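Notes taken during the Thursday session

The instructor put the following on the board and asked us to keep it in front of us for the whole hour. The protein is Lipid-binding serum glycoprotein C-terminal domain-containing protein. We were told not to look anything up and to reason only from what is written here. First, the residues (115 in total):
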Amino acid sequence: MQANSLTAVNMVLSEETFGATIYVKNFQLTLVHSNVGPVKMDNLQKTLSFGLKIMTPVLNERLKKMFLLPFHLQDPIVHVEKGYLLIMTDLLVTTLSHYKMKPENQLYSERFTML
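Then, after some discussion, the predicted structure tokens were revealed:
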């Protein structure tokens, strides 16, 4: 069995998280060789395509927030270069996790510019 599809991965960068989303298009299954005789690929392909349509949004919600950042990104600019990802941003760094604290309770914050 061989599976072919057009798959895209997009990077998602927010002020608090870094992650990705995936998109799958034109999913196709082909039977290359079978030791058990004829196999109905249409039914299997429809089942797997249906599963992809259901699971992809669920997976994307988890992937979008994959890495929690220990700082806030302010006005990020992202460039995809050959072999690497360039992120230019101002950082708002806090000593305690800002995910558990309200802004008025922060003990320390300082603005840094990353060059």
